[in-house]
Amino acid sequence: MHCVEEIKNGIYWVGCNDFRTELFERIFPLPQGVTYNTYFFDDEKTCLIDAMDKSCRDEFLEDVEYLLKGRKLDYFVIQHMEPDHASSALALLEKYPEAKIVGQPSTFKLFEQFFRHPMPDRYMTVNEGDQLKLGKHTLQFIKAPMVHWPEVIMTYDVTDHVLFSADAFGHFGTVGNVFADQADFEENYLDEARRYYVNIVGKYGPQVMNVLKKASKLPIDVICPLHGFVFRTPETIKYIVDKHLHWAQYVPEKKGVVIAFSSIYGNTERAACVLANKLSRRGVRDIRMYDVAKVHPSFVTAKAWEYSHLILAAPTYNLNLFLPMENFLHDLKTLMFQKRTIGIVACHSWASAAYKTMADYVENEFKCCEILEPTMDLKSSLRDDQECLMDELADKMAESIEQYPDPNTLI
Ligand code: FEO
C-alpha cells in the first residue's frame, strides 16, 4: 500500500506523516506532528523533487519504487539540503545510481559536508531561469536564497503551472488529505502554518517578499510545499499567499493584543490579569494571554505575529529580567519581530532590572516598535493607589488598538 496521489498530468505527491518526532529541529514542539512531501514526475524522463527525513526513509523509498514501476530514476532535484528533507537522499541515490542530482554549486558543497560521499559525476548545476525538459513537462528553476537556507531553489513546471515551493507555504501538523481545499484550513491548520512560518522562516521576511514578487509574475495553478497541504484552487492559493504577505512584511492579521507574561510568585500574573480585565471592559476583544514560562516560545512568537499589539509583563529575578521573558524577547529579536506597539508592566522587590531590559528590547533590539506610555514598574505587587496608572495604560492601549488601521489595507 502506498501514500501517493496524482496532482496533475503525471505529477504525483508522495507524502509521509511523522507522528513520532516530538521536537522539530530538536526545539519546536510538534503536538500534531509534521509531514514531509516529495513530488514525482512520470514523464519521458522520470524526476523526483526532494527526499524526506530519515524517519520516513523506508516508506519514501517504497513509494518511489512503486511510482517508477521498474523504470530508472533520471533526475533528483534537491531544493535545499536541510536534513528534514535530505537525510534520506543518499539512500535514494545509492538505490538509483543513474539519477543525476540537480542543484546549485552550494547544494553539492552541503551534500558533501553532510554525507562525506562526493558524487561529482552526477551533479547537474542549475541557475536562475535554467530549464530541464522531462518530456511533456519542462521544469524551470527559481533561486530563493535564505528562504531559509542559502542554496534554496524552487522549481516551476512551465507546462502545468505548478510551483514546487520548497519550505515556503508549508506548515506543521500531520494531514489526512492531500489538498488544502479538502480541509478546514483556517480552523485546523492556520495556527500551525503561522507558527511554522514565524519560527522557521520569519527572520527572512525581505527574502520571502523577493520570492513572492518573482512568483507573482508566473501563472500558478498549484503550489506544492515540502510540508503539509498542496494548494490547488484559486481560493486556497490566494488565502495562503495573502497570509504570507502579512507574515513576511511583519503586518498583523488582527487588531488586538497578546499579553505575554511571566511571574515568580503570581504578583505579575495578577497585574497582567487585572490589565486584561480592564482592556476587556474597554471593549478589546479576543485578548490572548500566555505565560511564557509555561507555553513554548514558538507558540507565543507566532501569536505576537498575528496581533497588532503586545503587552510584556515580567519581574526582576537575580538582578536580571526573569529568564523565561528574556528567552521570549530574544526569540522575537532573532526573528526580526517588528512594527508593533508594546506596553510594559515590570515588577521588582529590591532592585529593578526587568523594566530596563524589556524597554531596551523594544526600543533598541526590535525594528520599528514603540513603547506605549504609561509603563509600570511595580514594587512586589499591584497596589490600590496604582489603579489610576493602570487605568491610563488600559485607556491608551484600548485607544491604540481601536485606531489601528484594518490590517488588510497594509499589505
Ligand atoms: Fe523543511 Fe528547511 O526544511
TrEMBL record:
Transmembrane segments: none annotated. InterPro entries: Flavodoxin/NO_synth, Flavoprotein-like_sf, Metallo-B-lactamas, ODP_dom, RibonucZ/Hydroxyglut_hydro, Rubredoxin-O_OxRdtase. Pfam families: ODP (PF19583). It comes from the Bacteria. SMART domains: Lactamase_B (SM00849). Residues 257-398 form the Flavodoxin-like domain. In the N-terminal section; belongs to the zinc metallo-hydrolase group 3 family. PANTHER family: ANAEROBIC NITRIC OXIDE REDUCTASE FLAVORUBREDOXIN. This is FprA family A-type flavoprotein. It comes from Megasphaera massiliensis.
